[in-house]
Amino acid sequence: MSFVQFATRDGSPWVPEYLTAISAELCIGCGRCFKVCARAVMKLMGINEDGEFCDPFDDDDGEIERKVMTLDKAGDCIGCGACAQVCGTKAQTHEKLAAA
Ligand code: SF4
Ligand code: SF4
């Protein structure tokens, strides 16, 4: 199988690896990946006691059990890999894109 390939500034081949999933079990919501992403692909969410996603910044009721990063705009990812470099829990899955 061949994959979508681009080039770096000097013409070297660059095969992007796109963010395709973030494990809610492994993610600790540290926000490091969010800070390095220039494409606003991810979004921090809260998880309440029922296991449902909720607004991470509205915890007046104290229902938020923990916070996790989620994949919000997957189609905007350019596959730069910066988020993978800073994730210490291996919560993310990245995949190459099969060439048509
Ligand atoms: S691979 Fe790059 S563009 Fe895609 S989500 Fe990670 S940091 Fe953002
Ligand atoms: S860097 Fe990893 S652990 Fe931290 S918020 Fe992102 S996916 Fe979760």
Quantity of strands, as a count: 7
Distinct small molecules: iron/sulfur cluster
Question: What structural class is derived from the secondary structure elements?
Answer: mainly beta
Low-confidence stretches: none
Average pLDDT figure: 97
Amount of beta strand: 25-35%
**Percent helix:** 10-25%
Output the radius of gyration. Answer: 16 Å
How many alpha or pi helices? 2
The sequence of SSEs as H and E is: EEEHEEEHE
Tell me, what is the CATH class? Answer: Alpha Beta
Q: Write down the CATH topology.
A: Alpha-Beta Plaits
Strand order of the largest sheet: 5-4-6
Indicate how many domains the architecture comprises: 1
Distance between the termini: 10 Å
Q: Choose one word for the global shape.
A: elongated
Question: Main β-sheet, in a few words?
Answer: 3 strands, antiparallel
Q: Give the CATH architecture.
A: 2-Layer Sandwich
Q: Keywords, please?
A:
100 residues; mainly beta; Alpha-Beta Plaits; 3-stranded antiparallel beta sheet; binds iron/sulfur cluster
Give the secondary structure arrangement, pairings included.
Blueprint: E1 6-7, E2 13-14, E3 18-22, H1 32-36, E4 42-48, E5 53-54, E6 64-71, H2 82-86, E7 92-95
Antiparallel strand pairs: 1-2, 3-7, 4-5, 4-6
Residues 19, 36-37, 39, 41, 77-83 line the site of one iron/sulfur cluster.
